[in-house]
UniProtKB/TrEMBL annotation:
GO terms for cellular component: cytoplasm. Residues 75-326 form the Aminotransferase class I/classII large domain. One of its GO terms (molecular function) is pyridoxal phosphate binding. This is Aminotransferase class I/classII large domain-containing protein. SUPFAM superfamilies: PLP-dependent transferases (SSF53383). Gene3D superfamilies: Aspartate Aminotransferase, domain 1, Type I PLP-dependent aspartate aminotransferase-like (Major domain). The keyword Transferase applies. Keywords: Aminotransferase, Pyridoxal phosphate, Transferase. It comes from Cucumis melo. Belongs to the class-I pyridoxal-phosphate-dependent aminotransferase family.
Length: 428
């Protein structure tokens, strides 16, 4: 009798099966119903369960290329992490902190105290270590918490293009509107008139990353003066990313925007230990801001991650007390490069819109060097500048190499690129 019931029962949603049906029959119907559903049905159901925020973001091409690099044993110049070891004193300090049981939630006030001394000595800024700091899980979280602290839905945020895509993504999550101002190649200079035209009555903040990723540009004093003047004139905040401040080339010297007249009270500085001390995995960063903004950043930080890793905060004390010679040594790591050449050393002569990712993948396989398609850093064609009579095809002509690597790594990569018979590339 049961076999007959099973054979004749129609295929319906398991939700329509009567409660008096046997457990065996219910399970059988569930399996039959699942088998009849198509891949499109499953994809639609999964899509409906995701938020609109989650659906905006695709997997990071940098991470995908790095995975391919590992499989091909290629030199990774895609990810922006140093490949030279962290200072031994820092590693020993972290081990000591772990062994001393600094392993629970913890705010190490000493980090703020040391940072206050550093920014005073380096940039001439007087900051209160008790009120003007938030220690976060890396610069990325510090930046996100800063944006969430000051940006409301509909606020416009000016971002220089090309840029690290996290900036625009975080602004969008907050409901803000990224407004892109393109830097002009080949030296990636700022057109002041174009920048000033980007401001409207909805502009709330600008984002400044200097030294700049991906171009390596260090914004000049004249450019910084123009940015500061616009911020003051428009009562606009500035959120800066200064993680590369000690990694510059030639005569270039980093100047913090907050150090310019009228800017400390409207600037949020974000930075971290990651690049300076080759500890990108430690996730110790900070935001420095006027007290009322720093308080908001701390409140958001606590609700997202609670605290930065305790033993690495302890080790940060050693890092921040490093002698000036350590920071100067960073300028001697790697090549002596022309100003703002991080994006221009390799020109991709036949780099069409269809093959930009394929080009990089082929370079991994044929040359054994990993880079990132430069087009992923450009957003101008979808911004307010779209109506401007200007050719943006140059965006497809670049690939980005991360130069925060050892001299040996960079020398080996250059040798591979020069020796390779690779039709996409022409070294300048």
């Amino acid at each position: 009798m049961r076999k007959a019931m099973i054979k004749e029962s129609p295929i319906t949603s398991p939700l329509s099966i009567k409660t008096e049906s046997s457990e065996v029959l219910c399970l059988y119907e569930m399996r039959r119903w699942r088998r009849r559903r198509t891949k499109e049905d499953w994809a639609m159901e999964e899509d409906n369960k995701l938020s609109c925020v989650a659906k905006r973001f695709l997997p990071s091409p940098i991470q995908q290329l790095s995975l391919l690099a590992q499989q091909c044993n290629a030199i990774n110049l895609a990810e922006g992490f140093p490949d030279f070891p962290a200072p031994l004193a820092l590693k020993n300090a972290a081990v000591s902190a772990i062994n001393s049981d600094f392993n629970q939630y913890r705010h190490v006030q000493g980090v703020c105290d040391e940072l206050a001394k550093v920014v005073k000595k380096t940039h001439g800024l007087n900051v209160n270590p008790l009120t003007d700091f938030s220690i976060c899980c890396g610069q990325t979280e510090a930046f996100a918490a800063a944006v969430f602290s000051v940006i409301n839905p509909g606020d416009e945020v000016v971002i220089f293009d090309p840029s690290f895509d996290t900036y625009a993504n975080v602004v969008s999550i907050a409901g803000g509107i990224p407004v892109y101002v393109s830097l002009d190649p080949p030296k990636w200079t700022l057109d002041t008139n174009k920048f000033l035209k980007s401001f409207t009555d909805r502009t709330k903040a600008i984002v400044l990353n200097s030294p700049h990723n991906p171009t390596g540009k260090v914004f000049s004093k004249d450019e910084l003066d123009a940015i500061a003047g616009a911020c003051c004139a428009n009562d606009c905040l500035a959120i800066t990313d200064e993680v590369y401040e000690y990694i510059t080339f030639g005569d270039a010297k980093h100047v913090s925007l907050a150090s310019l007249p009228g800017m400390q009270e409207r600037t949020i500085i974000t930075s971290s230990l990651s690049k300076t001390f080759s500890v990108t995995g430690w996730r110790v960063g900070w935001a420095i801001a006027p007290a009322f903004i720093a308080s908001a950043i701390r409140n958001i930080h606590v609700r997202i991650t609670d605290s930065a890793p305790a033993p690495f905060q302890e080790a940060a004390l050693i890092a921040l007390r490093s002698p000036p010679e350590y920071f100067e040594s960073l300028r001697r790591v790697g090549y002596k490069l022309p100003k703002s050449c991080t994006l221009t050393d390799v020109h991709v002569s036949t780099y069409s819109a269809e093959n930009k990712v394929d080009c990089v993948e082929e370079m991994i396989k044929q040359v054994g060097v990993v880079a990132v398609p430069g087009c992923g850093f450009f957003q101008t064609d979808s911004s307010r500048e779209k109506g401007v009579d200007k050719d943006y095809s140059y965006q497809n002509r670049y690939i980005r190499f991360a130069f925060c690597k050892s001299h040996a790594t960079l020398t080996s990569a250059a040798q591979k690129l020069n020796e390779a018979n690779f039709e996409f590339l022409k070294m300048h």
